[in-house]
Amino acid sequence: MQEQPDIVIIGSGIGGSTLAAGLAGSGARIAILERGDRLPDTPEARSYSSIFVKGHFRPREMWREPDGTEFNPGNFYFVGGNSKLFGAVLLRYRAEDFTEMQHLGGVSPAWPFPYEELEPWYGKAEQLFEVRGELGDDPTEPFHSSPYTFGPVPDEPAIARARAELKAQGLNPATLPLGVDIDAWLAGGRTPWDGFPNTGNGKMDAETASLASALKDPNIELITSAHVDTLEAGPGGRIEAIHYTHRGEKKKLSPKLVILSAGAINSAAILLRSGDGKGLANASDQVGRNFMNHNCSAMLAINPFKRNDSIYQKTLMLNDYYLTGSRDGLPLGNVQLLGKINGDILKANAPLWAPRFAFDFMAGHAVDWYMMTEDLPNPESRIMVDGNGIIMQWRRSNMEALSGLEAKMRAHFKAAGYPIVLSQAFDKRTPSHQCGTVRMGKDPKHAPLDTYCRAYDHPNLFVVDASFLPTSAAVNPALTVAAQALRVADHIATREFRS
Asked: Where is the Glucose-methanol-choline oxidoreductase C-terminal domain (predicted)?
């Protein structure tokens, strides 16, 4: 791209790539700046030990807590972003998630628009990501104006048995909507996809689905190894330049529109570092604030007399306690299957003296579940910067809901014939759906972005990734980010770019 592009998108994750796909055919010259490279196909990509024990794909950077304690984050810097290793769960927020809801830990505020506004864009996102699913079993399922194009990924025998066991207790297990071509995935190796990097075509992630669609437009270019440092604003607040480092060389672009889609942590960090260190898009003082990361735990339901020989496992969810179930009938959260664990994962989190054969036995007789409850927005839960460093001050909330959900499901699993039930909460090293740091809202005094994700302070800046989310809900956010990205792309193509 020899001349200045019309639009620059910073980041090729779910938000940036899907927005690019939505802008394909608009006539706009678009450059996508991605700090990483394409993920190579290596033996480590299908190795439990390399991924979960050795951390082969984890970034070579450290973040800090406010007290100076360092930790290695679980964020991934490849073309496609964190979606390269995601579980490919493409769930809609429930309609109630767009309304104000009381939780055990406080109030989840209403969105600036209702579910019905985003509903048609959810359908378009499901088509783009070729979602496999089945409607009708989930009591919290929101209205769908269009069916899934593809049928569900099939339960393996042990999971079909688990589904029947939950139904026998009067529960409503439902099929997870997944962006997975199961035959193509298993052809590349007989492993789960959850937590495994996608180096082929089996998983519909940001690279293989939306970016691939976008790059069919010759006006759209992907530039890898392009690390954005800061944005520069001029008179009137317009973003006049993007300063980035491309393979060691300092460069600058000056497009008409800037789309920041670097993820909830890095989008906030870029804004906070910009403006000569004073920050941009932050008249509300909310950039970096209201950081949310789902409260999650892994739960193993173990029956020593029932073997689970599943390969991928992750096809089932339970939302019976999503909208109610705690004291006073308040919400708890979502339950879904994890990708099948093995002895390597269990051994990595156990004392050195513990025998390996015990973990192999446990993994072979466990059904592995994922408990997820809503983290509520709090301005003191925030991302800060110190030069190039990132400081995470995560004030977890609503943990009572996670404890309540674990108690409910522990009782159900034991009643279903699993006498041993173990659980382990996830910590900040696991990016359990980070969001909320540059939220949208109707009042510029309290939100950096309007309802189309445009910055109130900068007329040519949009922020389109999970940072715009006003609430975390208690389901995987990828499809909601994709749906809003398509909505914003339509707005830009029809109103912003052409004007």
From this structure: 430-485
> Smallest Cα–Cα separation from 211: which of 128, 91, 87, 119?
128
Contact by Cβ (8 Å): 206, 81: yes
Asked if 12 and 223 touch (Cβ cutoff 8 Å), the reply is no
Please state which architecture CATH assigns to domain 7-496. 3-Layer(bba) Sandwich (3.50)
Contact between 371 and 405 (Cβ < 8 Å): yes
- What are the structure tokens assigned to 398, written together? 């609503």
> pTM for the complete prediction?
0.96
Q: String of b and e for 302-339 (b: at least 16 CB within 10 Å)? A: bbeebebebebbbbbbbbbbbbebbeeebbbbbbbbbb
How confident is the model at residue 498, as a pLDDT?
Answer: 55
**pLDDT tens digit sequence for 91-135:** 999 999 999 999 999 999 999 999 999 999 999 999 999 999 999
Spell out, as residue ranges, where the chain has pLDDT lower than 50: 1, 499
pLDDT score at 318: 98
Query: What residue spans define the domains of the chain?
Result: 7-496
Contact 422, 302 (CB under 8 A): yes
What angle, 0 to 180 degrees and rounded to 10, lies between the N-to-C axes of helices 14-23 and 115-128? 90
Cα separation of 442 and 183, whole Å? 45
Count of residues making up the chain = 499
The first and second tokens of residue 425, run together, are 């909460």
Distance CA 38, CA 474 (A): 30
pLDDT per residue as tens digits for the range 455-482: 999 999 999 999 999 999 999 999 999 9
Report how far residue 243's alpha carbon sits from residue 388's, in angstroms, rounded to the nearest whole number: 14
Phi and psi angles of residue 456, each rounded to the nearest 5 degrees, phi first: -60, -30
Q: Which residue has the tokens 């991934």?
A: 76
Predicted local distance difference test score (pLDDT) of residue 74: 85
CA 403, CA 11: separation in Å to the nearest integer?
A: 36
Q: What residues pair up with 259 in beta bridges, in sequence order?
A: 9, 462
Among 273, 267, 217, smallest CA distance to 29 is for 217
Helix (H), strand (E) at residue 86: none
